[in-house]
Amino acid sequence: MNSSRRERDGNGRQQQQQRAEPEQPRLTPLDPQFVPSEPAQAEVDKKALEWRKLSSQRYDTKRRMGFAEQEKCDMPPEHLRKIIKDHGDMSARKYRHDKRVYLGALKYVPHAVLKLLENMPMPWEQARDVPVLYHVTGAITFVNEIPWVIEPVYMAQWGTMWIMMRREKRDRKHFKRMRFPPFDDEEPPLDFGDNLLDVEPLEAIQM
């Protein structure tokens, strides 16, 4: 009897101590005291297998209808200039099948203009060379580059240029008034290789 009472008293004290102790809150990954637990080896192997499968699909040789596509190499800029120059007059008979391609490329013209505006040379740059993605018929051309400058640096650069360009406009060294519209309605577009390729660009605006 005495031993059973002692056991009850001991169990009751343990329960009271457990009730008195406050429960520890669960830590989330956002808490600074959070320590992540080590993942199980089976979980690590599973993630590694999924990554290898995804990488093999992404970087494997592209196959379409049993035909393996070859890796495309960069071409010199003269190649693209010749394509566009040859397709300047679409009235030739050999280009009669390309007219449908040109009509289909019209819906991508806004994106091409956007990429062109994104990669325009800044006033502090004299010239900028960019990679270009183009269709084999010359129907559409994209600048295959994105701006890499972070926004605070970009704002600081333009703030400095704003002051320098005000001085340039006052001194009239590089600023010239432009006649609008620059081309007449019936005037054919200028060829870059014939008119602009040999012209040295103006000096960049420096501090």
Write up this protein.
The protein has 207 residues and is mainly alpha-helical. It contains 7 helices and 4 strands. The protein has helices spanning 2-20, 41-59, 77-86, 99-105, 109-118, 151-171, 192-195, and strands at 63-64, 67-68, 132-134, 141-143. The strands form 2 sheets. Strands 1-2 form a two-stranded antiparallel sheet. A hairpin with a 6-residue loop joins β3 and β4. The longest helix is centred in the C-terminal third of the chain and has 21 residues, at 151-171. The chain is flat, with a radius of gyration of 34 Å. The protein starts with a helix and ends in a 12-residue tail after the last helix. The model has no long low-confidence stretch (mean pLDDT 79).
Strand order across the biggest sheet?
Answer: 1-2
**Count of DSSP H/I helices:** 7
Detail the poorly predicted runs.
Answer: none
Mean pLDDT reading: 79
Beta percentage is under 5%
The number of E-state strands comes to 4
Biggest beta sheet attributes: 2 strands, antiparallel
Outline type:
flat
Oligomer: single chain
Tell me the span between the first and last alpha carbons.
98 Å
Radius of gyration: 34 Å
Kindly state the percentage of residues in helix.
Answer: 40-55%
- SSE string: HHEEHHHEEHH
Structural class: mainly alpha
